Amino acid sequence: MLRWTVTFIILALIAGIFGFSGIAAGAASIAKVLFFVFIILFVVALIRGKKSI
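RESULT FIELD:
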């Protein structure tokens, strides 16, 4: 999941450099959503791991 986030951030940066602002904005918003999903899943995994001990 984090790998996809980094991929979309790089895509947004490259698109922004070449002047494709619409593509850059779309890729950045996808990267932001994926990052927050990753953080939520990471926190849930930490909480579930502590309950099993």
